[in-house]
Amino acid sequence: MKRAVYPGSFDPVTFGHLDVIRRASEMFDVLVVSVLNNKVKSPLFSVEERVKILKEATKEIPNVQVDSFSGLLINYAAEHNMHVAVRGLRAITDFEYELQIAQTNRKLSKGALDTVFLTTSLEYAYLSSSSVKEIASFGGDISECVPEFVAKLMKEKYRASVL
C-alpha cells in the first residue's frame, strides 16, 4: 500500500491546497494530510480547528486521512510508515525553498523520505493562506479562495477579534 503525507499549516486551507490533495489522492492508496503544529507561527485557527476543517473539506475523498503533528516531518513519517511527502509549488521561489527542505529531509532520514512536488493548477497559482487571511481581515471577498464554510469561519474569527 502506497502511503504519502501532505504536511502543512493549512491556516486556512485554500482551493490550491485542495487541488493538490485531490491530485495526490489519485497517486497514492492513502494520503495523510497532516497539520503541523508550528510553534513559531501565530495561526488564525488552532490545530484542532484546522484538522476539523480539513476533515470537512476532504470528506468526499475516501482515501484521505487528516492528522496533526509536532516536531520533525521525518520522525512523523517514520512513525507512520510513510516514505513520501507531497508538496505543492506555485512559483520558482516555492521550488527553491521546498527543494532545500526536501533535500534536508532526505538527508536526515537517511534516504527514507522522498518528496513529490505537484505544481499548482494555474487557476490557483496566486493563492496563499497569508494573502487569504489578509484579504479576509479587511473584509474582502475570499469566496474564490476557500470553501464557503471556511470563508464563514474566517469572517467569524475576524469579527470576534474586532469586538
UniProtKB/TrEMBL annotation:
InterPro entries: Cyt_trans-like, PPAT, Rossmann-like_a/b/a_fold. The keyword Methyltransferase does not apply. Substrate binds at S9, K41, L73, R87. Residues 5-134 form the Cytidyltransferase-like domain. Coiled coil: none annotated. GO terms for cellular component: cytoplasm. It catalyses: (R)-4'-phosphopantetheine + ATP + H(+) = 3'-dephospho-CoA + diphosphate. Keywords: ATP-binding, Coenzyme A biosynthesis, Cytoplasm, Magnesium, Nucleotide-binding, Nucleotidyltransferase, Transferase. The keyword Nucleotidyltransferase applies. Pathway: Cofactor biosynthesis; coenzyme A biosynthesis; CoA from (R)-pantothenate: step 4/5. ATP binds at S9, F10, H17, G88, L89, R90, E98, Y124, A125, Y126, L127, S128, S129, S130. It is found in: Cytoplasm. GO terms for molecular function: ATP binding; pantetheine-phosphate adenylyltransferase activity. Its cofactor is Mg(2+). One of its GO terms (biological process) is coenzyme A biosynthetic process. CDD domains: PPAT. The record marks H17 as: Transition state stabilizer. Its EC number is 2.7.7.3. Homohexamer. Reversibly transfers an adenylyl group from ATP to 4'-phosphopantetheine, yielding dephospho-CoA (dPCoA) and pyrophosphate. NCBIfam families: coaD_prev_kdtB, cyt_tran_rel. Belongs to the bacterial CoaD family. PANTHER family: PHOSPHOPANTETHEINE ADENYLYLTRANSFERASE. This is Phosphopantetheine adenylyltransferase.
